[in-house]
Amino acid sequence: MRSLLGALLGALLGALPGCADPLEDEVQQTEPEPFEVALVEVDDLDAWVVVDAADDDLAAHRPETLNCPVGAWRAELGTLEVQTGVCNYLALAQPSSRALAPGDHLSVDLWHDVLDAAAPATAHVAVLVAGRVIGEAEVPIPNAPEVLRFEWTVDEPLAAGEPVVLHLHNHGYNAWTLVAITATRPPP
């Protein structure tokens, strides 16, 4: 609680042009504002970059021959769609849009169409932030269409610009759609 002298000083400084109450600034800095934002713009094809083998945190999953032309992934009605019939492995990265603090929440929404292949197989999809897997699934093929949601609570500070990676490999002519990666900070 402010003392009477502190309150008077704050009022006097606040009344002067260009001066702010330092106690008010301190309060504003210690109470983070709640938010809900896209951590990446999933449909911004110019923001995504293909991760090369040297920078791939899941490089052990990479096939010997990687075949994934740029046309295999595209923006589709505000989402990112990947056609695995022409793409046997994909790792795409985009810098995160904002800094995150412990307690912030991330959610990833994606889905796949009917999964089919000439022989039974397993698809693997994962999302990583700053090199950490925040959600992943192994999906048997064949399989019916399915919506997937990964949720993760941030446990250590993350700077804005940290790489957010979509990792996907799947056998057969299948379609996967990344809908959103959302960061949320609830009200205090």
Automatic annotation (TrEMBL):
Q: Its domain of life?
A: Bacteria
As given in the record, the signal peptide range reads 1-20
UniProt keywords, alphabetically: Signal
What is the protein's name according to its record? Uncharacterized protein
Organismal lineage = Bacteria, Pseudomonadati, Myxococcota, Polyangia, Nannocystales
